[in-house]
Amino acid sequence: MTSLTSNGKALTIKKTFSRETAVSIDIQADKSIIWALLINASDYPRWNSTVISIEGIITKGGKIQLKSTLDPKRVFKLLVKEFDADNKLVWGDTMGKRVYTLLSVGNGLTNFTMNEKIGGPIFPLFAKMIPPFDKSFEQFASDLKKEAETIGNAK
Amino acid sequence: MTIEQLTNEFELARPQLKSYILRITASIEDTEDIVQDSFIKASQKIDRFRGDSSIKTWIFTIASNLAKDNLRAKKRWTENVNDICRSKALTDPNYFPELMQIQHTSPHGQFEVKEHITFCLACISKSLPLEQQICILLKEVHEFKVSEIAQILDTSEAMAKYYLHEGRAKMISIFDGRCALINKEGACHQCSELNGIFNPKQNFETEKNKIEMAKVSDKGDKEHLLDLRLQIVRETDPFSSNGSELQLHHLEYNRRAMENYPEKN
Questions:
Q1: Long-range contact list for A98-106, CB < 8 A, 24+ apart?
Q2: Distance between CA A150 and CA B223 in Å, rounded?
Q3: Same domain, B70 and B81
Q4: pLDDT tens-digit profile of B149-193?
Q5: Is the residue at B43 inside a domain?
Q6: Same domain as B1, residue B95
Q7: Residues B115 and B149 in one domain
Q8: Contacts of B146 in chain A (CB under 8 A)
Q9: What's the number of domains chain B is made of?
Q10: Torsion over CA: B245, B250, B253, B255 (sign)
Q11: ipTM summary value
Q12: A16, A50, B64, B120: which has the fewest C-beta neighbours closer than 10 Å?
């Protein structure tokens, strides 16, 4: 997604048949700490205020059930589609996919990017029913940064 | 390194190593075996020691690997371990007579609340994933550096920090929700119950006020409360404290109860 900067601010691009939201932030922590936070399903509610629960195991081919504060009554049944340790994690369903990317950028900094694209031929019919992701994405990135940096700074 | 050097270092590390392995396995017999096997393995591998770590770290690495092998097929405990074992003990006609016998005949049979706190932490820590339990014991009880823990666990320092952080967060949450010493609403009063049985003339409130963790519990710093709890554990050798025999019996009882839980038919 173009024009995305690593300032923790989300950016959404709306098209007729899709909507794509992304956020990027630099985190002063080792990639493996951030990766550990991203793949430990049961630990999410402790540090991530946008997640109510994630059940299942986040591993390649794993099926997870996610409850988000965005829509607390819904349970999103998702499949882990890519699992490249310390680098890239992708989960999604038939409607769309969420991509997490980690990139070392030097001086102990890791760039974290989260991107979700939803869409399809019937997307215009229900587009208005899907709440905006921007605030939730920004909160996710902020929570992840705070938690990873707390762990990274521990003596 | 010569075998004499190894033997000297091993004997220096032995008391700490025994406490560490006991808290991981909750089994006196397994602890004795693992500590002995660690020495044998270290002796056999003495030529491979390159000095990349201290001898003590190397010994703890060998022992940790043996403990992990020992626990591989065993399930982790649950955070309500003390409730489960209490229920079992209350219906077991032998439980209290055995403890009373130890109290009356053993020089290490006194009941002290502080020692029960260390027993309790050993039980609760077994509900954490093993890596988290190992990290907490090594860092907070045996005072290894994160870099040394990473060597012992054969992982990165970052992951060791993560295990430590998550383990601490879980312990704080469990104790905050359960322990009546620090939370008036806490469901577990086992230390005061047992103190009433073993020391009927003592005033529990007086005993409680001798414990810094209980005294400052209303100040709300949960990280600090865990640090104070871990300080008590650091100061207690489970094999030689005033009530070690009583608490070891209790720990063995819990281990057997948890190995059979849910009850096998």
A1: A100/A38, A102/A31, A102/A34, A102/A35, A104/A31, A105/A26
A2: 13
A3: no
A4: 999 999 989 899 999 999 999 999 999 999 999 998 898 989 999
A5: yes
A6: no
A7: yes
A8: 154-155
A9: 2
A10: negative
A11: 0.75
A12: A16
CA distance B137 to A21: 43
Q: Are residues B122 and B61 in the same domain?
A: no
Q: Is the peptide bond before B97 cis (omega within 30 degrees of 0)?
A: no
Distance of alpha carbon A69 from alpha carbon A54, whole angstroms: 12
Q: Is residue B212 part of a domain?
A: yes
Query: What's the domain range around B6?
Result: 1-74
> Does residue B264 lie within any of the structural domains?
no
Torsions phi, psi of B220, nearest 5? 85, 0
Facing residue for B158 by CB, picked from A30, A43, A150? A30
Q: Which residues of B touch A104 (CB under 8 A)?
A: none
pTM for this model (two decimals): 0.86
Cross-chain CB nearest to A32 (options B156, B165, B169): B156
CATH homologous superfamily, domain A11-152: START domain (3.30.530.20)
Pick from A31, A33, A40: which is nearest to B161 by CB?
Answer: A33
Burial of B73 (0-12, 13-18, 19+ CB in 10 A): exposed
Q: How many CA atoms does the CB half-sphere of A88 hold within 13 Å?
A: 8
Residues B59 and B86 in one domain: no
Domain annotation covers residue B265: no
Collect the ranges in chain B with pLDDT lower than 70: 263-265
Phi, psi of A19 (to 5 degrees): -140, 135
State the sign of the Cα–Cα–Cα–Cα dihedral B35, B37, B40, B41.
Answer: negative
One domain, residues B138 and B242: yes
Domain boundary among B58, B74, B90: B74
Output the six-digit token pair for B15: 């008391």
Residue B203: partners with Cβ closer than 8 Å, 6 or more residues away: none
**Rg value, chain A, Cα:** 15
| Alpha-carbon distances of B156 from A30, A44, A55, rounded to whole Å | 10, 22, 27
Output the domain CATH number for residue B10. Answer: 1.10.1740.10
